[in-house]
Amino acid sequence: MASYCAVVVLSMIAFCISAGHALDCKKLQTTLYIKQTYSQDQRAVADDTVIINWVIKDGPGADANSTGHAEGLTIHANPSKNPWVTIMDMVFEKGSLAGSTLKVMGLHAGINDGPGQWSVIGGTGELTMARGIMNYKITQQDNASRTFEIKTAVYYTNSEDMMGGIATAPGQ
């Protein structure tokens, strides 16, 4: 009897391993740029809280294409130190990710504070169930603006695979 149970258990384990994941993961690995223009892409709502609508671009220069916006809040949670807590949705409006979003959060500071990392904790559209990281560094900063170079490594399951072809939003 014990050998029969062992065979059943081992067969179940082998089946589970060979069946793969219920939701196949895809990987997005890309470099993006966020342009933070202090006077036009954000507004203060309190002394240490700012609503952001920073432009996402596909390159660092002025001629780079805008692909969306980073929309959310950044909060100077510890004024005695430099970092700001940032919570944002990266909303893609153009390009291959148009109609998708990434939910991102983490700390950021000034150019002299070195590179940093943000967590990707969700996504929609093509990037459903996204999770991963964004390594960033500030490549330009002056009195008018700041540019973040963002190296993205995200795993996701697109909504078609997850929903089995069922419409994911009203009207689809």
UniProtKB/TrEMBL annotation:
<comment type="function">
    <text>Dirigent proteins impart stereoselectivity on the phenoxy radical-coupling reaction, yielding optically active lignans from two molecules of coniferyl alcohol in the biosynthesis of lignans, flavonolignans, and alkaloids and thus plays a central role in plant secondary metabolism.</text>
</comment>
<dbReference type="InterPro" id="IPR044859">
    <property type="entry name" value="Allene_oxi_cyc_Dirigent"/>
</dbReference>
<comment type="subunit">
    <text>Homodimer.</text>
</comment>
<dbReference type="InterPro" id="IPR004265">
    <property type="entry name" value="Dirigent"/>
</dbReference>
<dbReference type="Pfam" id="PF03018">
    <property type="entry name" value="Dirigent"/>
</dbReference>
<dbReference type="GO" id="GO:0009699">
    <property type="term" value="P:phenylpropanoid biosynthetic process"/>
</dbReference>
<comment type="similarity">
    <text>Belongs to the plant dirigent protein family.</text>
</comment>
<protein>
    <recommendedName>
        <fullName>Dirigent protein</fullName>
    </recommendedName>
</protein>
<dbReference type="GO" id="GO:0048046">
    <property type="term" value="C:apoplast"/>
</dbReference>
<keyword id="KW-0052">Apoplast</keyword>
<keyword id="KW-0964">Secreted</keyword>
<keyword id="KW-0732">Signal</keyword>
<feature type="signal peptide">
    <location>
        <begin position="1"/>
        <end position="22"/>
    </location>
</feature>
